[in-house]
Amino acid sequence: METPQTPERPRSRVLVIEDDETLSFLIREALENMGHEVTTATELAQGLACHRAAPADLIVLDRMFPGADSLRSLHDLRLAGDEVAVILLTSRSTVEDKVAGLREGADDYMGKPFAIAELQARVQALLRRTVKQPSVPAEISHEGPFTIHWVQMRVERDGRSLDLTPQEFRIMTLLIRAKGRPINRAELMANAWPSSSRPANLRTVDVYVARLRSKLGRASDPSWIRTQDGAGYAWND
């Protein structure tokens, strides 16, 4: 079986400061699938503390927080000489709002709602200009008979796309990235579902793994996902 050619983690570090947990989850997942190291924070003060502790190469920053002023914090960052790249996200889309954000130091501005693919492109463009990048991680890799389209969250076998749900795709790729290390149900649930829509019962993970096995396997195949008693599930590499 082929060694997984999953995207290697580059040196770029992205910090997402967004109080909408579902949106934050989607952004994190999309950027991790590009190979970036992603940290998330749902509060402005928490996010800024994360940046001080481990400076990011790029910050995806929500414009609006209850009782907190993102633009003021951005202004203070620039005043202190911090040149981290910043993409501002906001539901305010007037020219005046865009100009205000750019004047305070934002490098780019995206109005909500937006396409995740566009955000991915803007992140990559900004990082190319501001950070010395290593080789760009492959958007497509191969694992055994499977072709994995990381950005599109799609898996093919013999040229045919498998009908995987987002949770099944995440479970499969989490197991592949673990390179044979077992992952327990709790960890799979925490990383395959947004916090706002996680099932109440860990046994739901078993149901999704069973469905995934069925979609991946053929009668002549080995079991692509093995169960390790007491430890969870692992990719059979």
Describe the model.
It is a single chain. The chain is of the alpha/beta class and 237 residues long. The chain has 2 domains: 118 residues, Rossmann fold (3-Layer(aba) Sandwich); 96 residues, Winged helix-like DNA-binding domain superfamily/Winged helix DNA-binding domain (Arc Repressor Mutant, subunit A). It has 8 helices and 13 strands. The strands form 4 sheets. It has a 5-stranded parallel beta sheet, sandwiched between helices. Strands 8-9-10-11 form a 4-stranded antiparallel beta sheet, with no helix packed on it. Strands 4-5 form a two-stranded antiparallel ribbon. α6 crosses α8. The longest helix is centred in the middle third of the chain and has 15 residues. The protein is elongated and about 60 Å long. The N and C termini lie close together (6 Å). The N terminus is likely disordered.
- Helix tally? 8
Number of strands: 13
- The fourth-level CATH homologous superfamily of the largest domain is Response regulator
Distance between the termini: 6 Å
The description of the largest β-sheet is: 5 strands, parallel
Based on secondary structure, the structural category is: alpha/beta
Cα-atom Rg, whole angstroms? 20 Å
Biggest sheet: strands side by side, in what order?
Answer: 2-1-3-6-7
